[in-house]
Amino acid sequence: EVQLVESGGGLVQPGGSLRLSCVVSEFPFRDYAMYWVRQAPGKGLEWVSTISSGGDSTTYADSVKGRFTSSRDNAKNTLYLQMNSLKPEDTAVYYCAALYWGKGTLVTVSS
């Protein structure tokens, strides 16, 4: 059974940092680009970033560019999202995705 399990969410103050992880199993992780997508409370899904299968190419939504960094470790089947300079508007459930989706991890940015 394919599993994508996100972790690392939590409550952080504005300006703080968090690193999300997504461990993928039973899936050819190294062969696929991976995505981070988020959903703020009461809002629709928002694409956050894409990372190529080899990790050498990344793209970001304008809303997070310069603050978030996506990376991956293909040896560990793990995707990461380093989030710096967090803002209250970054509050959302964050999902990793490829052909499948994880269940998400909640990030709350609040003082």
Describe the structure in your own words:
The chain is mainly β. Helix content is 0%, strand content 50%. It has strands spanning 3-7, 10-12, 18-25, 34-39, 45-51, 58-60, 68-73, 78-83, 92-97, 105-109. The protein has a six-stranded mixed sheet, with no helix packed on it.
Number of helices: 0
First and last CA, distance: 39 Å
Element string (H = helix, E = strand)? EEEEEEEEEE
Q: For the largest beta sheet, what order do the strands appear in spatially? A: 2-10-9-4-5-6
The major sheet is characterized as: 6 strands, mixed
Average of the residue pLDDT scores: 97
Are there runs of 5+ residues with pLDDT below 50, and where? Answer: none
Indicate the structural class.
mainly beta
User: What's the shape?
Assistant: globular
Radius of gyration: 13 Å
Strand tally: 10
In short, what is this structure?
With 111 residues, this protein is an all-beta fold. The protein has no helices and ten strands.
Please specify the SSE layout and strand pairing.
Layout: E1 3-7, E2 10-12, E3 18-25, E4 34-39, E5 45-51, E6 58-60, E7 68-73, E8 78-83, E9 92-97, E10 105-109
Parallel strand pairs: 2-10
Antiparallel strand pairs: 1-3, 3-8, 4-5, 4-9, 5-6, 7-8, 9-10
